[in-house]
């Protein structure tokens, strides 16, 4: 039996976000402020994410692409964190918004100080909350599941096809290594049907 999902919620978000990115015409502050409102509305109700996009793996956190704008102006990704799972210290190089759909996650910001990667702030994003990342507002962090006994899921929006962007991870002494994350899924969810 097909999942009973309110996929209309995601379609509405994508339509509004696409219109915002067109209207903003590169005004990042406007995208981050109005986009945060749209993402907050999306993660306020947990009835639309397909099960395949909520799937975790014991090998590590998952990055399920939900949608990528045809002009690659933005992408929307479901991140799934199992207990104990975390990213390396990394950057994004483009604007991003993170909305917590299930559970909670911890983000520790970093900056290079006296030849070491030093933590700057430590935040826990709770269900329903939204936070921004960008080279202009702080772009280097490490993210982990803040729940010890269950998966956490956050919905990320980035100002590019993030799975194809050349980015960096940072060793404790600040040494950069280039990486391209790709995506965990080989196929996209069908969100365009009648449901919702
Ligand atoms: Fe990140």
UniProtKB/TrEMBL annotation:
SUPFAM superfamilies: RmlC-like cupins. Signal peptide: none annotated. It comes from the Bacteria. InterPro entries: CDO_1 (IPR010300), RmlC-like_jellyroll (IPR014710), RmlC_Cupin_sf (IPR011051). The keyword Iron applies. The keyword Iron applies. Gene3D superfamilies: ATP synthase delta/epsilon subunit, C-terminal domain, Jelly Rolls. Pfam families: CDO_I (PF05995). Keywords: Dioxygenase, Iron, Metal-binding, Oxidoreductase. Belongs to the cysteine dioxygenase family. This is Cysteine dioxygenase.
